[in-house]
Amino acid sequence: MAFTLPALPYAFDALEPFVDATTMQIHHGKHHQAYVTNLNNALDKFPELKDLGIVDINKKVGTDAIPKDIATVVRNNGGGHWNHSFFWKIMTAPTNSNGPSDELKAAVDASFGSMDVMKEKFNAAAAGRFGSGWAWLGVKADGSLGITSTPNQDNPLQGVADEALLPVLGLDVWEHAYYLKYQNRRPEYIAAFWNIVNWEQVSENFTAAKAGSPPAL
Amino acid sequence: MNAIELKAPPYPLDALEPHMSKSTFEYHWGKHHKTYVDNLNKQIAGKDWENKELEEIVLASWNNGSPTPEFNNAAQFGSGWAWLNSDKSGKLSISKTPNAVLPVVEGKSPILTCDVWEHAYYIDYQNRRPDFIQTFMDKLINWDMVSQRYAAAQQ
Fold first, then answer.
1. pLDDT digits 0-9 by tens, B15-62
2. What's the pLDDT tens digit per position in A104-123?
3. How far apart, in whole angstroms, are the C-alpha atoms of residue A31 and residue A22?
4. Which chain A residue has its CA at the smallest distance from B29's CA?
5. Which residue among A31, A130, A152 sits closest to B127, beta carbon to beta carbon?
6. Class of domain A102-210 (CATH, top level)
7. Contact A152 B72 (CB under 8 A)
């Protein structure tokens, strides 16, 4: 069964003024669509991999389970498809979210000291990722929360990741995610992101991660 | 003190319109390139490298594949560059590099390059990187300069 582009859970302009409607239109309809199309094309010759589902495909990136001649395409486009499917859901219209659950807040405090410190570290990971990539907050193997960043369309589910995390929150720092509105001012985009986090979804992701599961897409 | 200099492009910022807008140049040269230069100058201030030429700094900071922090500032999937290179015998090759890597660290002499970081084309072409590349190839290359570099690579 082919992969498909999921619908955005909100209108293109829902995240204004923090992410502009034109960016959402192009980011979803062009960039994410391209990852889906390219992934499907690569897996045409290996239909049994399509049936694995996008989470398992990502987990198998970097292993022999993915045939060598499509390994890079699957890493880039399988990563891109999972990353963006995850990303749309952890955002919502400004003032639409009531903040993190008590469990998530407690876990953030335990791992970082406070929400503010967690945000500082997340912001630093996002700003410090040179070139294209993502910043992540996720649950580590020992159950604590950690922050990491990955290059290009890699993610912490993949076998190639520096640090294995079950993602709870993530931020796209490819220039296509912010260039039309923020141009080179990536730190401004990162700061603006906190206004549109869907904490309810993030809290659900945390609950799943504590139980050892990746977030539902 | 011998700071690295941000040189102006050899033409006014609107010279490549409509293929590459003045706005792109204002950001790409005026912000991105300027930031690389400013950050590099801050990094080399007070060190040996302060008095070296840019190419020496690039090679030294490449550090045989474990680049030091200064390196990032001296077709690809994600950010990077495409290169047409010449060896000393005039034989051409094409290569691509990620982020700020460049062929000189692989002993190659580039004679033509295209920046494919999204900041190089997003204002004018958004996601349409192939259209940007096609326009670049058809309309924006300074072939006199490329030919000069080709000749120089063989000396």
1. 999 999 999 999 999 999 998 889 888 988 888 888 888 878 877 877
2. 999 999 999 999 999 999 99
3. 13
4. A184
5. A31
6. alpha beta
7. no
Q: Is B100 on the interface with A (CB under 8 A)?
A: yes
Which single residue is written with the structure tokens 């991660």?
A: A209
CB contact under 8 A, A184 and B27: yes
Whole-angstrom distance, CA of residue B75 vs CA of residue B77: 6
In the block, which residue shows the tokens 């084309």?
B121
Stated as kind and residue range, the H or E segment containing B124 is helix B122-125
Q: Please answer whether residues B83 and B96 qualify as being in contact, where contact means their C-beta atoms are separated by less than 8 angstroms.
A: yes
| Residue A212, both tokens | 């050892």
Which residue out of B27, B118, B131 would a mutagenesis test of the A interface target, given it has the greatest number of A Cβ atoms within 10 Å? B118
- State residue B2's pLDDT score: 64
Nearest to A174 among B80, B100, B118 (CB): B118
Chain A CB within 8 Å of residue B146 CB: no
Residue spans per domain, chain A:
21-89, 102-210
CATH 3.55.40.20 fits B22-153, yes or no: yes
**pLDDT per residue as tens digits for the range B71-90:** 666 547 889 999 999 999 99
**B12–chain A Cβ distance below 8 A for any pair:** no
pTM, two decimal places = 0.91
Q: State whether residue B19 sits within 8 Å of chain A by CB.
A: no
Q: What is the ipTM of this complex?
A: 0.89
B70 vs B73: CA distance, rounded Å: 6
Among the four given CATH numbers 3.30.360.10, 1.10.287.130, 1.10.287.990, 1.20.210.10, the one describing domain A21-89 = 1.10.287.990
